[in-house]
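ARCHIVE RECORD
Type: protein–small molecule complex
Small molecule: zinc ion
Source of inputs: curated submission
Record status: active
Notes field left blank by submitter.
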Amino acid sequence: MENYKIANRANAACSQCQKRYSNQEEYISILAHPSPDSEEFVRLSFCLECWDREKGKRRYLCFWRSCKSKVSPQSWDIQSLLETFEDLANKQFALEDEEAKFCYLLALVLLRKKRLSLQDIRFQKNQEYFVLFEKKKNKSWKIPVPPLDKEEIEHLTNKLASLLQSPETLKREGEKK
Ligand SMILES: [Zn+2]
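STRUCTURE (tokenized, with ligand):
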């Protein structure tokens, strides 16, 4: 339930000034680590005024514009993450970089949400790569699989996915259990 509350709050009010978003209001969502040495994720959101002051001070993994409108916030979030993934996947980064890990975790979430499909797994110079395919754009990306253990991957992917779920989806999943 903890994750549900965070995600829900992030879509309702500014994490800084606590102001509730009005209808059609644009705000900024970010994914960040709660502390510098943490692997966990938190989701926060900021009204545009607060973001102006906060953006230089905050460390975050990615940010995107959200809008409190009739469009489901969840599909906004997933679309934004797909764009973040594309940006990261187009970059060259070292395997031990935070970005490599985050890119891989995003890919796992997007696979789960069926925005990407796994086309191939390749090994080059003892390194494993995923070849991922995006149907809508008819485009493939090759990304390295970082050295994380299975449990860690599972935990972080679940956490990330739950931060992006709409309250409705979570309720439905809760009922199934
Ligand atoms: Zn604010």
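CURATOR ANNOTATION: DSSP finds six helices and six strands in the chain.
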